[in-house]
Amino acid sequence: MTKKVMIVGLGLIGGSLALGIRRAHPKIEILGVDRPETLAIATDRGLIDRPSALTEAVSVDVVILAVPITQILVYLRELSALGVRALVTDTGSTKAEIVRLADKLGLNFVGGHPMAGSHKSGVNAADVNLFEHAYFLLTADNELLKDLYSGLGAKFMVVEAQTHDRVMSQVSHFPHLLASALVMQSDGFSSDFPLTKKLSAGGFRDMTRIAASEPAMWASILLSNREAVLSRLADFKAQLTEVESLLAAADSARLTDYLTMSRQARETMEILPGNSANNHLLYISIPDEKGATLRVLALLADISITNVKLNENNREDIHGQLQISFKTRDDLTRAKELIALATNFSVVEG
Amino acid sequence: MTKKVMIVGLGLIGGSLALGIRRAHPKIEILGVDRPETLAIATDRGLIDRPSALTEAVSVDVVILAVPITQILVYLRELSALGVRALVTDTGSTKAEIVRLADKLGLNFVGGHPMAGSHKSGVNAADVNLFEHAYFLLTADNELLKDLYSGLGAKFMVVEAQTHDRVMSQVSHFPHLLASALVMQSDGFSSDFPLTKKLSAGGFRDMTRIAASEPAMWASILLSNREAVLSRLADFKAQLTEVESLLAAADSARLTDYLTMSRQARETMEILPGNSANNHLLYISIPDEKGATLRVLALLADISITNVKLNENNREDIHGQLQISFKTRDDLTRAKELIALATNFSVVEG
Fold first, then answer.
1. Contact criterion met (CB < 8 Å) for A266 and B216
2. Which of A52-56, A114-118, A129-133 is the most confident on average?
3. What is the mean pLDDT of residues B149-154?
4. Distance from CA of A38 to the nearest CA of B (A)
5. Residues A20 and A66 in one domain
6. What CATH number did the domain enclosing A220 receive?
7. Domain range holding A312?
8. Residue A267 with chain B: CB contacts under 8 Å
9. Are residues A146 and A10 in the same domain?
10. How far apart are the first and last CA of chain A?
11. Among B167, B185, B301, whose Cβ lies nearest the Cβ of A239?
12. How many Å apart are CA B71 and CA B89, to the nearest integer?
């Protein structure tokens, strides 16, 4: 039975883990290690029971390292030096380098990678629902950890550390570099064609959004998964050379085929939402008359709604689509029941 | 004075242009050329006054070609063969090839490129607000055309055709190819690592969204702007080689610098929204109490709202942010006045 947990790093991830642990295990004592100002807020908000210091790790059951990769590596050495026997886990975006070091140090370690985030950061952004329905990757199966994290509402998946890093190099780390390179190219081009900066439209914005992330954090991720990212980069150059030949040959049929295959391939991917908010979606068919939207919202006045999208113009049918996102699955279920009881509007989950 | 306009192609773009022309010039007669089913809907919805045939182009003042690039090229030849003297314009995503042909044929031609779109298509998706606040690029200054289009609410900008295509190769055409190549690479990689398809998260989704667009249309665009796109592609390979060397050298400081410069460069870009809906945004500070959101929405019951985003959890202040998007600028202005009259909530435009 887990009785005492230490969370090192109480930012968005660490703070949200604390809230999730509390939800399922109100009796577990949670100790926090971070800067004094952060610990004061974390204690105030009830994320942790009390501030602590790393040396106390010798007397806890689980240590969670929710800090950047470079710091995880430092803390692993410190925990080993302290002779810590507790289960140690982390939340880093790469796994191979971390697991390799933990094993070398003889720690009782299981790597973790919760695939959720937010544009917000810091202890004030901690959210008990951050990990709901998100994948939570573990480098080994571990019942103690899955039980500790059972209140997160996450989907656990065991992925061996090397495989984890290879997959992430393709779906996350290399794409990040690609986005940054595209911005740098555009920026250079804009000295010859200043309009470039003015006319960057929707597609460009979407493709480069991740280039706005924290540079130091991403440099660490890329360096921690260097070999895999370099392999993707070399492979991508070959991919570009293939496209180049299609375009250079002005081969319309083969170029169309390429774009068609790409579109189909994208459809077979399980494209995950960026955050949990989109996971609890209801589509409500409302009559096309004034007050219908307001009536639904009044019904749901007590339920935590995160977003409301109203019916679009120029619909072919006579019913409007009202699209409402909820904070939690429970909120969605309650809303569905309420609407069914109070109206004859048809409701579909998104 | 423009009295008669012919629109060839009444899809999303042509249909929306028709509505915008009507808004400013209710007396102009609009003729439509398209398939019979489309013309029937366009007539029904009042987009056009009547169906027509291309031969009637000899007796109109303006011909608008709102069809794919390959068809624009065909129609230009037909209009020339008919001896059309009217002002001819188009809506294609590339301009150099089209302007070159129109000039060669001796047509009275000004190229157009409205930078707006929607995930929806077809005559039923036509929307009078589609172009509001969007850039509408013209290959030459033309008062007649700007007057004709004055009801669109678009921002006109004159860009020489070659420059247009160079800029678009960087901000739109090459990025499209990049997104498709990334999907193809991922798809290939997933045969070795099946998890690749399962774990494509938010960043990957955003980066590859445009790879879901219509393949034939994009093949035409890429081929019509082949030289410029090939030049961007070659340049990008060099850009990747530079990043590769930073990563291969495991140079943390220089890699962080690169990512920082990229982030800063992105901030200097005027990132345009993908559609007009986000352009009319109000932030309303509401008290953190039940019913406050509903009260605002009830006040605005008669105004066309497209999206409502409700206050996020974990705010540090005691006021909630309610974020409401409106269909038009007028709706936003009216909403702002109403809220100011009826409440003491502070309102800021987004």
1. no
2. A52-56
3. 94
4. 14
5. yes
6. 1.10.3660.10
7. 280-349
8. 212
9. yes
10. 38
11. B185
12. 13
Evaluate if residue B311 carries a pLDDT over 60.
no
Give Cβ neighbours of residue A333 (< 8 Å, ≥ 6 apart): none
Mean pLDDT value of segment A156-173: 97
- What is the distance in angstroms between the Cα of A213 and the nearest Cα belonging to chain B? 7
Q: What is the mean pLDDT of residues B38-47?
A: 96
Q: Select from A163, A235, A271 the Cβ nearest to the Cβ of B195.
A: A163
> A319 has which bridge partners?
A287
Contact B252 A219 (CB under 8 A): yes
Confidence of residue B119 (pLDDT cuts 50, 70, 90): low
- Mark yes or no for CB contact B306/A312 under 8 Å: yes
Q: Of the residues A205, A226, A248, which one is the last residue of a structural domain? A: A248
Return phi, psi of residue B163, to 5°.
-60, -45
A75 shares its domain with A215: no
Return the CATH number at B303: 3.30.70.260
Looking at the fold, whether B73 and B172 belong to one and the same domain comes out as no
Cross-chain Cβ contact A306/B316 below 8 Å: no
State which of A248, A272, A307 marks the end of a domain.
A248
Number of structural domains chain B divides into: 3
- Residue in A159, A183, A239 nearest the CB of B184: A239
**A56 and A127 fall within a common domain:** yes
Instruction: Indicate whether A271 belongs to any domain.
Output: no
Hey, are the CB atoms on B200 and A308 less than 8 Å from each other?
no
Is A190 part of any domain?
yes
Residue numbers in A near B291 (CB within 8 A): 301
The pLDDT of residue A307 is: 76
Residues A184 and A154 in one domain: no
- In this predicted structure, what is the pLDDT of residue A297? 86
Question: Do residues A136 and A149 touch, judged by C-beta distance below 8 A?
Answer: yes
Q: A192 with A151, same domain? A: no
**A21 Cα to chain B: minimum distance (Å):** 18
Answer yes or no: do B262 and A183 touch at CB < 8 A: yes
Complex confidence, ipTM: 0.81
Instruction: Supply the pTM of this predicted model.
Output: 0.81
DSSP calls for A247-310: HHTT-HHHHHHHHHHHHHHHHHS----SSGGGGSEEEEEEESSTTHHHHHHHHTTTS-EEEEEP
Q: Which one is predicted more confidently, B125 or B321?
A: B125
Q: A186–B272: do the CB atoms touch at under 8 Å?
A: no
B240: which chain A residues are within 8 Å (Cβ-Cβ)? 181, 233, 236-237
Q: Are residues A127 and A241 in the same domain?
A: no
Residue A108 CA neighbour count, 13 Å, CB half: 14
Q: Is the pLDDT of residue B279 over 80?
A: no
Q: Is residue A236 scored above 60 in pLDDT?
A: yes
Residue A68 within any structural domain of the chain = yes
pLDDT of residue A316: 29
Measured in angstroms, the CA of B36 and the nearest CA of chain A are apart by 18
CB B279 within 8 A of CB B133: yes
Domain CATH code at residue A23: 3.40.50.720
Interacting residues of B44 by C-beta distance below 8 A, sequence separation 6+: none
